[in-house]
Write a structure and sequence with these properties.
Largest sheet: 7 strands, parallel
CATH topology of the largest domain: Rossmann fold
Helix content: 25-40%
Bound molecules: adenosine monophosphate
Mean pLDDT: 83
Structural class: alpha/beta
CATH superfamily of the largest domain: P-loop containing nucleotide triphosphate hydrolases
Number of helices: 16
Number of strands: 14
Distance between the termini: 44 Å
Oligomer: single chain
Strand content: 15-25%
Length: 431
C-alpha cells in the first residue's frame, strides 16, 4: 500500500487544463474521497483496487487519468512524428457488467473529453442491439472502448477489434460482472490482453471470486476502501408491515411524502407490472423497468426517469447497478434483494455525490430473517419502525427486532428518545 496524502482540489491531483476546465464547467468543486486518493496514483501508472460504489465518483476516478494519459501520449507521438498504431486497436479498455452502465460510462468519458476537441475517440459496445453499427464505429480502432464482456468477445471473433495494444484495463463493478455469470467471458478476454498494462479494478464488494481475480490480475496495487454508503448523506430506514398491507403502505408513503421521484425495487419482472397495476388502482402512475423490455424501451424509460418525466419507477435489480440518476430522493425495497451486496447496490441509487438520500425497506414477516442477514453482511443495524395505521402484531415485532421497537411513525410521540433527528427525519418533515 502506498502512503497517500489527500489533495483538496483538482489542480493538486495533477490533471491537465483541458480536464480542469471541463470539471469547472461541470461544477465539480472538489474531488470526492476516491478521486482524491486514487487519481494521483493512477496518473503515476499504478494498478489500483478500489472498494467503491456507484455514487462515489468512481467513473471520473478512472476516466480522467485515462483521458489524460492517452492525450499526453498522442502529443508525444506527434512530437516524435511517429504515427499512432493503425488498424482496429484499442488503448483503454473498460469492462462493465450492463448495457446501461456501458452507455453511461461512455457518455461521462465523452463529456470529460470535450476540450480535447475530438482527439480522443470513445466507443461503447454492448449486447441487445445489432452489432453492425458498433462494428462501423470501431473501424480504424478507438482510443477508449467501454464494453460488456459477451458483445466484446463477439466483436473480437468477427475481427472488429483487437486487444493486443491495450495499455489500461478497467474492470468496473467487478463483483457484478462475476455474479452475472461473465466469469468465462472475462477469462477469455483477459487472455487476449498484453501482459504489461495498467489495471484498475472497482468493486462494491469483495467476495472470494473477486479476490482471486485481483490476485491474478493486479501488480502491487494501491488499495482504497471507502465506506459503501456514506451515512452522512444516505439514511436507511426499515418499516415492518403485514404482507397483505405492503402495497397499501407503499401507496400511503408515496402520497404522504410526495417524493419528487421514487425508485422501487421488486424481485421479478412480473412483480413490476403487477405492482404498477395495483398502484394505478390507488391513483399512482408508475412505469416499469426490467429485462423483458427491449433495449429501446429500456433506454426510453430510463431517459424519461432521468429527465424527471416519470415520478415512480418500479424496477428489478437490473437498475440497481451503475445507473446514475441525479439526486434521486428515495429508493424503496418493496421486495428485499436476495443478496446482501445487491442491497448496497440498490440503496446506492440515492444519496449520490453528497446529496441527502433515503433508502426504505418494507419488510413483512417472511423477510425478517433475511433482513437480519443483509444487516449482518453489510455491518449495519437498523431500528425496525412502524407506520401508524400499518402496525404489525406484537408477536411479529419480537421476531423482527432484537431490541425494543420504535413507536409508529406519525403516532405523535418522539421516535428516537434523546437522539438528534436524522437527515431523513428533517428531510421527510420538509418534503
Ligand atoms: P459515479 O460514482 O462515477 O457514478 O458518479 C456519481 C455522480 O457524481 C455522477 O453524476 C458524477 O457526475 C458526479 N460526480 C463525480 N465526481 C464529482 C465531483 N468531484 N463533484 C461533484 N459531482 C461529481
Amino acid at each position: 500500500m502506498s502512503t497517500i496524502t489527500t489533495p483538496i482540489n483538482f489542480t493538486e491531483l495533477g490533471l491537465i487544463s483541458p480536464l480542469l476546465a471541463r470539471l469547472t464547467e461541470l461544477k465539480y468543486q472538489q474531488p470526492t474521497p476516491i478521486q482524491a486518493q486514487a487519481i494521483p496514483s493512477v496518473l503515476d501508472g499504478h494498478d489500483l483496487i478500489a472498494g467503491a460504489n456507484t455514487g462515489s465518483g468512481k467513473t471520473a476516478t478512472f476516466a480522467l487519468p485515462l483521458l489524460q494519459q492517452i492525450f499526453v501520449q498522442q502529443q508525444a507521438d506527434k512530437t516524435l512524428s511517429s504515427s499512432r498504431g493503425k488498424g482496429n486497436y484499442v488503448t483503454g479498455l473498460i469492462l462493465v457488467p450492463t448495457r446501461e452502465l456501458a452507455k453511461q460510462v461512455a457518455d461521462s468519458i465523452k463529456s470529460y473529453a470535450v476540450h480535447f476537441n475530438g482527439a480522443i475517440k470513445t466507443v461503447a459496445v454492448f449486447g441487445g442491439v445489432s452489432s453492425n453499427t458498433q462494428m462501423l464505429a470501431l473501424r480504424g480502432g478507438t482510443d477508449i472502448l467501454v464494453a460488456t464482456p459477451g458483445r466484446l468477445l463477439d466483436l473480437i471473433t468477427n475481427n472488429a477489434i483487437k486487444l493486443d495494444k491495450v495499455k489500461t484495463l478497467v474492470l468496473d463493478e467487478a463483483d457484478r460482472m462475476l455474479s452475472l455469470g461473465f466469469t468465462e467471458e472475462l477469462a477469455a478476454l483477459l487472455a487476449l490482453l498484453p501482459k504489461k498494462k495498467q489495471t484498475l479494478l472497482f468493486s462494491a464488494t469483495f467476495p472470494e471470486q473477486v479476490q482471486t481475480l485481483t490476485q491474478e490480475l493486479l501488480n502491487n496495487p494501491v488499495e482504497i476502501q471507502l465506506q459503501s454508503a456514506d451515512a452522512s448523506t444516505l439514511v436507511q430506514r426499515v418499516f415492518t408491515v403485514n404482507k397483505g398491507q405492503k402495497t397499501a403502505l407503499l401507496a400511503h408513503l408515496i402520497k404522504q411524502h410526495q417524493w419528487r421521484q421514487a425508485l422501487i425495487f421488486v424481485n421479478a419482472k412480473n412483480n413490476c407490472n403487477h405492482l404498477a397495476d395495483k398502484l394505478s388502482k390507488r391513483g399512482i402512475t408508475a412505469e416499469v423497468f426490467h429485462g423483458d423490455k427491449g433495449q429501446g424501451a429500456r433506454s426510453r424509460v430510463l431517459e424519461a426517469f432521468k429527465a424527471g418525466e416519470i415520478d415512480v419507477l418500479i424496477a428489478t435489480d437490473i437498475a440497481a447497478r451503475g445507473l446514475d440518476i441525479e439526486k434521486l430522493p428515495v429508493v424503496i425495497n418493496f421486495d428485499l434483494p436476495r443478496s446482501p451486496s445487491d442491497y448496497m447496490h440498490r440503496i446506492g441509487r440515492s444519496g449520490r455525490a453528497g446529496e441527502v438520500g433515503l433508502a426504505l425497506s418494507l419488510i413483512d414477516h417472511e423477510d425478517y430473517h433475511h433482513f437480519k442477514i443483509i444487516e449482518k453482511k453489510n455491518k449495519i443495524r437498523l431500528e425496525r419502525e412502524q407506520v401508524a395505521g400499518f402496525e404489525v402484531a406484537e408477536d411479529d415485532l419480537l421476531i423482527a427486532a432484537d431490541k425494543p421497537m420504535a413507536k409508529p411513525e406519525g403516532s405523535g410521540k418522539k421516535k428516537r428518545k434523546n437522539k438528534a433527528p436524522t437527515n431523513a427525519d428533517i428531510w421527510l418533515k420538509n418534503s
